[in-house]
Amino acid sequence: MTGCASRADKDSAGRTTAAESSKPADGGTSGGDADQKFGSLDSPCGKGTAKVAAAEAGGSPDTLRIGIANDRNSTFRPGLNSFFWDSANAFVKWCNDQGGVAGVPLEAVDVDGKVLEVEAAVAKSCSETFALVGGGWTQDNLAFSGKDGADFHKCKLIAFAGFAVSSDFAEANGQVQPVPNTAHEKPDGWLLELAKLYPEGAKHLAVMYGTLPAIEMVADQVVGVAEATKKFGKVTKISYDALTPDFNLMATQVKDQKAGLVYYAGEEKNFAKFVQALDAADVDAVVFADANQYDAQVLEGIGATDRDVLVRIASHPYEEADEFPATQKLVDVMKQYNPEGRVTSLTAQSFSAMLLFAQSAKQCAEDSGEITRECVLAEGRKVTSWDGGGLHAEANPGENKPPTCSMFVGIKNGKWVRKFPELDSDADDGDGFSCTGELQTLSGDFGEGKVDPSRDDTVG
């Protein structure tokens, strides 16, 4: 089963009816109704009599224990990736209200990597969880320590990741991503559209990145795709200290370079401070970034600005939830089950990962009555068209292919607004995304996935 994104139906007056179309048949919002929907998906949760394979259950074959990778208790970056933990807790409660997965209740296990303690988080995952689901570590390359009991491959873990950062993890076997982030294949459509929107700025693109290996790799990939499009006159990289950034220096460097477009790779709060520094230095440049910056923290940090600040996302913006049933459903589930939780663009990816995992586990339960890692991973790999029931642009988890469609949101009057494409315009593919361009295969050293040849699943 796969998802198929669609705009909400309209009533006779032209009003959207997304909230109604995402309710279960009895009009309620929870309580185990077998007909509950998540956008275009039938809910993967419900009653049953399945068991989890005892040797893989993390302590309880009567509970499906999922590890939620995050870095929220890092001493120098408190709250990092906390939205993964928030979304998982909401999803688990929503699913358990329906009976769990084939009758097996879910349990969220906090495997906080604290940025620098991923090895310990993997050790906990190995002993206490069935799978890693809906989360991610900033330094996920550290999941492969090579140590017994603390290595992703050695303890035969599986993952349905909310995101993958390093090529080590993004192209490893043993994992499936609902929105793949591969190291060597990247969509170019968003940069093609950016060059059209800002032809003067495209004469010089600067890529600003923090000095951590995973962040520098992102910068190199952006440079590679930008150069492949041949739409940018000059492309340069500017680095900053990721742990102790000097924002005034960063703004001065952009000004000295006379860059018209600036891509930023780094954290949300630092992104806001960078934009503030550009404003203070009166630097005339358009700033853009990727999905992790679509966050209330960025709005709060930037405040009022006349600058064009754009964020590329492949999910539907929450400001348009009434147009898209799956997005409305996510908003409703978070509001009901974890109203204090952070909701960001990556919340949609987290939910998508948990939906794909639950759907795969349910199929295994229906086939054999037992939920095993090998079966769940195999079911996930069968899915070659997936949009989380309409949460995001179509991707190909089974073959590890990222989506080619995306959109830009921008900031206006302290709020996120759609910047491009305009809904129902010629640039809109019919689901609110622009699908210009194709996947570019990048040349260069972007690393390789950690592949365990003893595992049966293939990668990409």
Please explain how this structure is put together.
The protein is α/β, with parallel strands linked by helices and 460 residues long. It has twelve helices and 18 strands.
Distance between the termini: 20 Å
Contiguous runs where pLDDT drops below 50 for at least 5 residues: 1-5, 9-34
Radius of gyration, Cα only, in angstroms? 21 Å
Instruction: Give the name of the CATH superfamily of the largest domain.
Output: Response regulator
CATH class of the largest domain: Alpha Beta
Strand line-up in the sheet with most strands: 11-10-12-13-14-16-17
Q: What is the total tally of β strands?
A: 18
What does the largest sheet look like?
7 strands, mixed
What's the number of structural domains? 2
**Judging from the principal axes of the Cα atoms, what is the shape?**
globular
Structural class: alpha/beta
Average pLDDT, rounded to a whole number, is 90
> What percentage of amino acids are in beta strands?
15-25%
Per CATH, what is the topology of the largest domain?
Rossmann fold
Descriptors:
460 residues; Rossmann fold; five-stranded parallel sheet; alpha/beta; 12 helices
What would you say about this model in short?
The chain has twelve helices and 18 strands. It is an alpha/beta fold. The protein has two domains: 18-183 and 319-381, 3-Layer(aba) Sandwich (Rossmann fold), CATH 3.40.50; 185-317 and 404-441, Response regulator (Rossmann fold).
Question: How would the blueprint of this fold be written?
Answer:
Layout: H1 18-21, E1 37-38, E2 41-42, E3 51-52, E4 64-70, H2 82-97, E5 106-112, H3 118-128, E6 131-133, E7 159-160, H4 167-170, E8 175-176, E9 185-187, H5 189-197, E10 205-210, H6 213-229, E11 235-240, H7 247-257, E12 261-265, H8 268-280, E13 286-289, H9 296-302, E14 309-313, H10 325-337, H11 345-368, E15 370-371, H12 373-381, E16 407-412, E17 415-420, E18 439-441
Parallel strand pairs: 3-15, 4-5, 4-6, 6-7, 7-8, 10-11, 10-12, 12-13, 13-14
Antiparallel strand pairs: 1-2, 9-18, 14-16, 16-17
